[in-house]
Design goal:
Length: about 200
């Protein structure tokens, strides 16, 4: 039953409550509070906990102290909070979408490193690909004279059914040349359904 719950795409509860329930069950099953013992009992469930949706403060206060995750796993999730690159480890979920329903607006921050925004050599700069809500996403930065335009693209879906997603996103362009960073926000609906 617990595995069915942690695999669900839509739940009426927060991810931290899912984590707390899994840990509580693991402590009961292990008859121990030791992180390694609990881990052995919940290992098959770990890969379905969406740690990347917790936020860094919640993750560090509620997950790290349990001692259930390895140092490598903790480091990979913390790296995600700084870079937006999802972890690619066996027991850590790389799904960065919060659980919810289709009417929910997804908030997402895209980080993109730009060497020097003022002297962008090419006409455009394309980011890495992100996966969230079962879609591939990327950003494109385009230079028009002295202006920069930021575009968000939803490339292809991992599902073949009609879909619609509302995104409230923030683009954080990180400039490594000691010039100001740029932050742009937008709200947009993406869909493969003809209106």
């Amino acid at each position: 039953v617990l595995q069915y719950i942690v695999k669900a795409e839509h739940l009426g509860t927060s991810e931290i409550e899912v984590w707390n329930a899994v840990v509580k069950w693991g402590k009961h099953a292990a008859n121990s509070n030791n992180g390694e013992d609990v881990r052995n009992h919940i290992l098959s469930l770990l890969k379905f906990i969406r740690f990347c949706t917790l936020g860094s403060e919640t993750f560090c206060k509620n997950v790290v102290p349990t001692g259930i995750l390895t140092c490598e796993e903790v480091n990979e999730v913390c790296t995600y909070f700084g870079t937006g690159v999802a972890p690619m480890l066996e027991y850590i979920c790389n799904n960065t979408n919060p659980r919810g329903n289709s009417g929910t607006v997804t908030k997402k921050t895209f980080f993109h490193i730009v060497k020097d925004m003022n002297n962008l050599k090419r006409k455009y700069d394309i980011s890495q690909t992100y996966i969230f809500h079962n879609f591939y996403w990327y950003t494109k930065i385009r230079k028009y004279g002295d202006d920069l335009a930021v575009y968000l693209f939803c490339r292809e879906s991992l599902i073949n059914t009609p879909w619609e997603i509302k995104v409230d996103c923030t683009f954080s362009l990180i400039n490594q040349e000691n010039k100001p960073n740029m932050i742009v926000s937008c709200k947009r609906k993406f869909s493969n359904v003809d209106v």
